[in-house]
């Protein structure tokens, strides 16, 4: 007998629509600010902005003979078109695109609709006479490359950089707070020369800040030079204009760096450069997440429980380091996307192919996963408490790490002419390698060496917890 399952609700038909991916679903709150910069709607708003500014330039820059000079009211009217681009306008533009089957052409028609009704707002306006200058001499990529440059610049400067900087500053603050807390190092996973917890965090903060400095100095390039970068249509239509000069002034007026030599597309090299720097920040942050996760597993950091939260569905005692694990996964996804963007965008067959068009639609998810990871790490760090007592206990169980300073002191004494300092490394190796040495045995060994009294006194006073060198000073002097 065959059982028949009841028919299921089609989730694809549920209203409001259900997000396919986690960035627009589960994690929407953490990444929502990017929607203003890297969404499809933001792309269309940027296109409208570029088209409007180009129209204003052609009319009021004495570029095209006979073009009407626009009044302040007419300029303001045009600039309100992108400024008021909201839900209704998004739907209207989508309807136009369904007819044109071309996204940039739809933007042109959308603007021309607004120009056609300008007289309702500005009696006697000359704007309709300028309608044919919308998208004048432009290929779609003239509009798209400038739009993406503005979008990415805005997303980085207004959303990603502030969040990434706040995280680096948070790590730096923790480094200063914990600069004097001694901790046993692990190199190759083995007990090694002590450091301080703050100094190790300072290393990560310094690395993050260095990448932020590179991102802050990024160039965002743009071009406006026609179908194959030759100003062909421009020169035929208006031979009197100095089109490279017009293009340069326009691109720089948008706050971008002008690229004078391109094919149909702006070459996207700047995108590859900035994505590589963001990905490198991601990877350093990934290193921080794995290190902090390890410190938590060792008990050096304890996590402050959140009231009502569940660490495990079966083990009530657990407080899982989920913020850092979530960050790891999202950083890996972000880096994969950024690497793909950087690798794909720098290549275009001959004068143009469309691989970049589809690829660039994934810029938002690339930054979204990075922003989500940053949010998780920041929240995870806020819930940490340094367990100085356990770190002190760990240090006290590893006196053999003092083999390094003792043999170094013996070397210095030998150079100074002290007898009996032969083979210092080998003697400490025999004492410590593969063996546990307690305080009494180490001090007995130091006392047997025949060192000068001041050196012996210094070494006898040394403990694993006090053997942190200049760690605290390095945090104070160089973290900034």
Note down, in words, how this protein is organized.
The strands form three sheets. This protein has a two-stranded antiparallel ribbon with strand order 1-2. Strands 3-4 form a two-stranded parallel ribbon. It has a two-stranded antiparallel sheet with strand order 5-6. It is elongated and about 100 Å long. Helix 3 packs across helix 6 and helix 11 packs antiparallel against helix 12. With 480 residues, it is mainly α. 59% of the residues lie in helices and 5% in strands.
Q: Which residues sit in consecutive blocks of at least 5 with pLDDT less than 50? A: none
CATH topology of the largest domain: Fumarase C, Chain A, domain 2
Global shape: elongated
Secondary-structure element order, N to C: HHHHHHHEEHEHHEHEHHHEHHHHHH
In angstroms, what separates the terminal alpha carbons?
75 Å
Q: Write out the CATH superfamily name of the largest domain.
A: Fumarase/aspartase (Central domain)
Number of strands: 6
